[in-house]
Amino acid sequence: MVTLNVTGMTCDGCVRAVERIIKAQDPQANVTIDLGSGRVEAATSAAPAALVEAIEAAGFGAQAA
């Protein structure tokens, strides 16, 4: 389980974008995102650093929680 704090998500479209980014790294990932808190939990085999890098490349802020 990877837990991240993601900033810059302002709508459901942002939530879907972050979910797509994570699933691009691991198509089998099970992703839960709380828009209000910016908390992202993903049951994934992808490395947390790779997820942070991909999310930041898309214009969001991200860090491991």
Structure keywords:
65 residues; alpha+beta; Alpha-Beta Plaits; four-stranded antiparallel β-sheet; 2 helices; globular
Stretches where pLDDT falls below 50 for ≥5 residues? none
Number of domains: 1
- Counting helices, strands and paired strands, the structural category is alpha+beta
The percent range for helix content is 25-40%
| Spatial order of the strands forming the largest sheet | 2-3-1-4
List the secondary-structure elements in sequence, H or E. EHEEHE
Q: How many strand units?
A: 4
Shape: globular
CATH architecture: 2-Layer Sandwich
Q: What is the rounded Rg?
A: 10 Å
Biggest sheet character: 4 strands, antiparallel
CATH class descriptor: Alpha Beta
Q: Report the mean per-residue pLDDT as an integer.
A: 97
Fraction in beta strands: 25-35%
CATH topology value: Alpha-Beta Plaits
Spatial separation of the terminal alpha carbons:
11 Å
Question: Tally the helices: what do you get?
Answer: 2
Task: Give structural notes.
The chain is α+β, with helices and mostly antiparallel strands and 65 residues long. It has one domain (2-64): Alpha-Beta Plaits. Helix content is 37%, strand content 31%. It has a four-stranded antiparallel beta sheet, with helices on one face. Strand 2 and strand 3 form a beta hairpin. Helix 1 (12-25) packs across helix 2. The longest helix is centred in the first third of the chain and has 14 residues, at 12-25. The chain is globular, with a radius of gyration of 10 Å. The termini are close together.
